Amino acid sequence: MAQRSKKSATQKTRGSKHRAVTLRVAHTPRLNRYLESITAHTYFIRVIILLILLWLGFSAGLFLAEQGSEGTAITSYGRALYWGVAALSTAGIADTPISGLAQLIGGAWIIIGSVIFFGTIVATITGYFMRPLQRPVHQIIETIEYNLEHLEDLSAEELDFLKKTTDGLIMHMERLKKSQHNDD
After folding, report:
1. DSSP 8-state symbol, 92
2. Which of 36, 40, 44, 31 is nearest to 119 (CA)?
3. Which of 37, 67, 140, 152 is the most exposed, fewest CB within 10 Å of its CB?
4. CA distance 156 to 153
5. In 3D, which of 70, 52, 56, 63 has the Cα closest to residue 102?
6. CA separation (Å) from 142 to 79, 113, 139, 157, 173?
7. Lowest-pLDDT range, 15-29, 39-53, 95-109, 165-179?
8. For residue 138, what pLDDT is reported?
9. Average pLDDT, whole number, for the chain?
10. Cα separation of 137 and 133, whole Å?
11. Would the pLDDT of 34 be above 80?
12. Largest Cα–Cα separation, the chain
């Protein structure tokens, strides 16, 4: 509360009649819910594991294909792993493999790895933002949770509306419990 009155005093001295707008870093509970949501409702973790396994496999194949090639920069498995990351990052810093088989393996890794990596990012973000549209109940719950986390920022009108909404939800829940109890 002390911070709020301090903000009000600061606003009054500046002559501002507008509500103070603050930029907040993501709250830990919201970030945790986001990560739990991604883990529970998408294949993100599975695809990342698949991508790591493919990276290890393609790097091993590239290293084995480059063994014995003169002038190759890929002289160890560690360098092959680095090449796999550098090639996938599309930064253009990866050395070109020398042997034809290594170039084929490297090209396949770049295509497959990029499709999986960028496809996963796009699918995860799209899926996360589409879920509330598919399940409006979650959107209602998230809105109420957000408002509860930011009670000090709500006006009296907004708090009254939030109270009416939660009272309606509680009444609905009690009716559901009674109907389930009557069915048993």
Report:
1. S
2. 44
3. 152
4. 10
5. 63
6. 46, 35, 5, 20, 17
7. 15-29
8. 67
9. 78
10. 9
11. no
12. 81
Q: What is the pTM of this model?
A: 0.53
Residue 11 CB neighbours (<10 A): 14
Tokens 């294949």 belong to which residue? 43
Could you give the C-alpha distances from 36 to 31, 33, 41, 43, 150, in angstroms and in order? 9, 5, 8, 12, 21
67 within 8 A of 60, measured Cβ to Cβ: no
Residue 10 has pLDDT above 60, yes or no: no
pLDDT at 92: 67
Question: Cα–Cα distance between 112 and 87 in angstroms, integer?
Answer: 12
Distance separating alpha carbons of residues 85 and 71, to the nearest angstrom: 21
The amino acid occupying position 142 is E
Query: Token pair for residue 119?
Result: 């496809």
Residue 109's identity, in one-letter code, is W
